[in-house]
Design goal:
about 130 residues, mainly alpha, Helix Hairpins, globular
């Protein structure tokens, strides 16, 4: 499915991560070669920075930190072998079901104890 706008940009970023090397993008290569935990920590850090700049009413910093957050989130999807299309499909499902792509209410039917995904283990979680 061809994507446009912001969705297309995130799809392109995700696809480009497969070609990253230490020669062409050393910072991104370092991030992708780090542990899953480190990438997750960066997502948390960047989300906190977005929130902090928001309470400071610093619009330009919110934009910059939001871009950092999206970049790290896409790196996390890459590590987890999640295609951005799956995220967009979930957003559409929620919008169809709830009228907006908000977080659905908790229900007893949801699995409260999911098993650890395959990508969370192995060499990716080893400190490098």
């Amino acid at each position: 499915m061809a994507a446009s706008g912001s969705q297309g940009e995130l799809d392109r970023l995700h696809a480009s991560l497969a070609a990253v090397t230490a020669d062409n993008h050393p910072r991104t290569a370092r991030l992708l070669n780090s542990s899953t935990r480190k990438i997750a920590q960066k997502v948390i850090e960047e989300a906190g920075e977005v929130a902090l700049e928001t309470v400071k009413h610093n619009t330009q910093a919110i934009v910059r930190e939001s871009a950092d957050l999206l970049y790290h989130l896409v790196a996390l999807w890459h590590r987890a072998d999640i295609d951005p299309g799956s995220v967009w499909a979930e957003m559409r499902r929620r919008a169809d079901e709830l009228g907006i792509a908000e977080k659905p209410p908790k229900s007893r039917d949801r699995d409260s104890n999911p098993s650890t995904p395959e990508w969370a283990g192995g060499n990716h979680d080893q400190a490098k």
